[in-house]
Design a protein that fits this description.
Layout: E1 9-14, H1 18-24, E2 31-35, H2 45-57, E3 66-70, H3 79-90, E4 96-99, H4 105-122, E5 130-135, H5 138-142, H6 144-148, E6 154-159, H7 161-168, H8 188-200, E7 204-207, H9 216-229, E8 233-236, H10 239-248, H11 253-272, E9 280-282, E10 285-287, H12 289-304
Parallel strand pairs: 1-2, 1-8, 2-3, 3-4, 4-5, 5-6, 6-7, 7-8
Antiparallel strand pairs: 9-10
Helix pairs in contact: 2-3, 3-4, 9-10, 11-12
Amino acid sequence: MSSPRPRRTVLAVPGSSDRFIAKARTLAVDCLFLDLEDAVAPSAKADARDRIVTALRSDEGFAAPTVTVRVNDWGTPFTLVDLTTVIGQAGDRVDAVVLPKATRADEVTALDLVLTQLEQVAGLEVGRIGIEVQIEDALGLLHVAEIAAASPRLQSLVFGPGDYMASMGMGSLSVGGELPGYVGDHFHHALASILVAARAHDLQAIDGPYVAIRDVEGFKASARRAAALGYDGKWVLHPDQAAVGNEVFTPPAADIERASRIVEAYREAGARAGGGVGAIVVDDEMVDEAGVKLARVTLARAGQAPA
C-alpha cells in the first residue's frame, strides 16, 4: 500500500457540530474525517471551517491515529476556500484530504497542485498530506482507473453508495442497503471496479456508509461483503458500527495462525529443497506460490490492525 495506515473503520464527523467533534475525539476508530461536504448546509460551511480549524489546533487531539478533512467537490464554489482555510491554518494536523464526487483525473491533479502550494506556504514537507478520492457516480466509475493514477498523494479510493444509487437511478431510499426487487449484490460491479483500480495503483479500497445506524446486523452483513471482496475498511456513522467494523476487517485469529503456518512451512520446504519447491501440503490442501501470497496478505492485514 502507498499508505500503511489502517482504515478498517473511517468515522464521519460533521464539521458544523461541536458535540459530534467532541464525541469523536475518544472513539476507537482507525480514521475519521471532519466533514465540510454533505453533512454541512451551505449556510453553515464558513462556520464549519472555523470549527474544524479550532478542533484540529486543540491540544485535546483525537484517539483516531489518522485524521482527515472532507472538502466540497470541484463542482461547488467551496473547494478552494475549504482548502485555503483548513489546510492553510491547520495543515500540520491533517493527514489527508478527502475529495468527494470525483469524475475525472484532472480534479485530483488540481487538488494535488493546490496542496503543494499550501504546504510550501506553511513550511510543510511537500507531499505530506495525502488524498482520498470518492467515486460516487457513473462518470467517476468510468474514469476510476485514470483517477487512481492521477497523483502520488493518493492513498485510497472510497465508494460513495448514496450518490451512486442516485446516479444510476436505483429504486431504493436506503443508502447502502438492499435493493428491493433485485436478487444479488447491486453494488458488486462498482465495488469490484474500484477495487481493481485501487490495487493496480497500490491504494487502499474503502466501502462507503450504511445509513441504518440501529441495524447493526445489516451493517455487519454489508461490511462482510466488502471485506470478503478484498476491501480494507468501511465508513462508519455510529460507535456500534465502529466496533463491528473493526472486528470484520481484522482477520480472525485462526486465519492469522494458519497463514503463519503456511508461510513458515513453505519457507522450510524451500530451504530443504534449495529454493526449488513448487507446492506443499498444509492441512490437507495443496499450497503453491499463489497460496503463499494469500497467506501473506492475511498477515499484512493483521499487521495493520492495531491491538
